[in-house]
Description:
Helix content of chain B: 55-70%
Oligomer: heterodimer
Largest interface: A-B, 30 and 28 residues
Strand content of chain A: 15-25%
Amino acid sequence: MFVDGRTLADGTALEADVCIAGAGAAGMSIALDLRASGLSVIVLESGGIQRDPEIQRLSVGRMDGIDTWDLRSMRVRALGGTTGHWEGWCRPLMPQDFERREYIPNSGWPISYAELVPWYRRACETLQLGSFTWNAAARAKAMGNLLLPLGAAIDQRYYQFSPPTRFARVYGGALEKANDVRVVLHSNVTDVRLETGGTRVSSFTCRTLTGVTFNVQANRYVLALGGIENARVLLASRSQQTEGVANGHDVVGRYFMEHPHYYGSIGIVHALALDLAFYKRIPSDLKRADGTSVRVLGALGIAADVARREKLLNFSVTFQPVTAESDTGLLAATTMQRLVTRGRGEGQAAELSVRAEQSPLAESRVTLTDELDALGMRRLALNWRIAPEDDVQMRRALVILAGELAVAGIARARVPGDASRFIWRPSPGGHHMGTTRMGTDPAVSVVDANCRTHQSENLYIAGSSVFTTSGDSSPTLTIVALAHRLADTLKTRV
Amino acid sequence: MTPYRPARREFLMRALTACSAPFLVQSVQAQGRQTRPTPGAKPQRGAQVAARFLGAGGRDSVEAIGEAYLKQLGIDRTEEAILAAAAGTLQLIARSPTETAAVTALVQAVRRDFREQRSVQLDGWILARTEVELCILALLSPGGG
């Protein structure tokens, strides 16, 4: 059922077995799984059914590092969260993304890709994708398309596209009908209260923009507020501990990661008439439960063994044809076209879009400012940083990709900068990750392999803030997979 | 116009001999036997093979790449400098009995360059050393400068 928090009497105390803060992809996935489990559930949502500019202003923050999208518009404070405006890009993280790579400081999840696969499968259903199959060669063959004839150093991969699933529209009704789930709208967690001793959460203090204050008491608590807000709420909960909750080692808010995107700066020229259909966003043979076709998009990356040998972060490249004449470099694409085709036939220019992993960096972080929002909570400051070594790795990776395209006789590619500098400016992907990262060591992580905070035994965190490393894949599929896994954990532990 | 230097022929002979380019050595020797050295004399076969490899048309493009490479190397557009800078590719051409065989060898060399990371970056483009050397050799062909 839905409840409007603004209609509650001031000082109300609500009780449930599980309290979930946040009704986005993670929070709603958990709530859906906990229906009919014998557990009573309260879901707290900052917004209502529709987006409201006044509520969005609660997300305003200061940018201290690399510019990213306006936080006020990037995350949606309404039922369904950011699925209200996501584009539907889906790919799981890759096996190597979970592994410890000694050349990437602080890498290595405490869980493996294989362990997460059962929940990835369930997440595919939740996000209305096709089956959990990610073999590009098999997919292209099934679709009657060809992969580019590239060597073993290149890993061919592909995205599946969700319709995209708008959680409020697709799943809001199910939660509204559920007798054991109460979705309390217009309600913001402003303080996480701890029991004496500080090892258990005793309640969430909640406020509405109309001035109602109430609290929720539960056996288990889940923060599912997004990659930035999860950290903000923990840091802002200082009524009992000056450093905030679950932050005894000053890790909360650190290791913030984005997916640096690099658009259009690489020209590429095909020497041959190539079948590029697989590399366009086209309907595939994969079908949803309702029989509609799932769109896919082929992409290129570096093979895991080569990446390990060359000490490279993960990244994926997609491309789209452009006219060579639009390129105005010193050596324009038209010039390269003539070189590559050697005077025989037509070439084709394309722009590359690179979606990259970044190293987890302690100095890349969310902190609190002294400015207060309308609820009296301290606003955040986001200092997104990228390690200089990442630029070096990224450039080397692109040079390897360019070489492989050339070896195959397909193309020449342009990589901005030279051996001493990489001059491509990163754009954000709008993916906020890592601020309550998963790990076994409380000195460098906030939650354990079960998404439970190291310091509060009944406080769990869902969403991309638990990502130990980011990989290059869009995070939603992994967010939902981890949410389903956490729901199963909660069922067995409550 | 390429400036004439009295010591050019000696330089060419040394460069071509050093890189074992017998047909180019013969070409230059033949020129010396048959005619007075002229300011415009060029090792024609290397340039012809380069032109054939790079295909018909697009001379402006080839020149643009060649000029950019010379600029990156910091050398003037002189025969001596070009022959020295393209010594590796000249050597490959020289080992080939025919122009057709040379072109085939060059195609393989370009791929080998990329595979073995002997690449050159010009204005961001990642190119094989062999192909940029062919572009500067093409500057020596008639009409190429």
